Automatic annotation (TrEMBL):
Mediator of sterol homeostasis involved in sterol uptake, trafficking and distribution into membranes. Regulates also the sphingolipid metabolism. It is a multi-pass membrane protein. The chain crosses the membrane at residues 116-141, 153-174, 180-201, 208-227. GO terms for cellular component: cortical endoplasmic reticulum; endoplasmic reticulum membrane; Golgi membrane. It is found in: Endoplasmic reticulum membrane; Golgi apparatus membrane. It comes from the Eukaryota. The keyword Cell membrane does not apply. Belongs to the ARV1 family. Keywords: Endoplasmic reticulum, Golgi apparatus, Lipid metabolism, Lipid transport, Membrane, Sphingolipid metabolism, Transmembrane, Transmembrane helix, Transport. This is Protein ARV. GO terms for biological process: intracellular sterol transport; regulation of plasma membrane sterol distribution; sphingolipid metabolic process; sterol metabolic process. It comes from Absidia repens.
Amino acid sequence: MPTCVECGTSVQDLYTKYSEDNIRLTSCDHCHQFADKYIEYDFVIIFIDMLLLKPQVYRHLLFNRISQTGHGIESNITRFAILLILFEVYIKWFRLERCCTQYNSIFIHKPLYYQYLYILALCILEFVVFHCCVCLALRVYYQNQNKVIRYNYISMALIISSFGKMLLILMVIWEYEQLEYSWLVSITVLASNVEALSVYLDLSYVKTLFIVGLGIISRIIAQLLFLRTTFVDIGLDDSPFLRTKWLSL
Ligand SMILES: [Zn+2]
């Protein structure tokens, strides 16, 4: 059932269609505002509202854009998730190249396909661990409550709200000297993850932040373990400072 983006109550429909280009938005009986104003909005405005962390836009995307009867991840969201992972690979590679050149690591002398597959494996691992740990934390949190959690929608909420990672491309275009600026993008992604999950689960920001925080800690631990077990293989074992650099990748 569609949802009013303003107050979150269910509505019968979002609009009435009179002809091909003539629709009338439905007003919500509860809050007396348009149930979903974003139906008529351009994608650019939707994107800006996502950046501004407006809960209405996340209700629109999570309740009214995604089919509420599916069991898996929608194909366009799967494609977006793949794009995010590939993008992360590119950014990690970009950082690593600078890092290894600075400390003369033999990793950059390995074949390109080896470097790519290594970073791709790391990114996929981080993605899977983050999603699984957030779902696990929610399962533990709701185990004594009579609430049905649809984990595929949790994953879709996390994927959609990770759009902020795309902003990292600006670092490549503008060639920042200090890669540490990326923490600003990480905070944007964290904030939008919390906003999306909070809206979807109707959970307070503090509790949602705690759950997403557990996912991030698990992702860092997974990254550490992955790097620890492969340091010798990639020739980074004799460069302790590089290890700490890797952690900020
Ligand atoms: Zn309403």
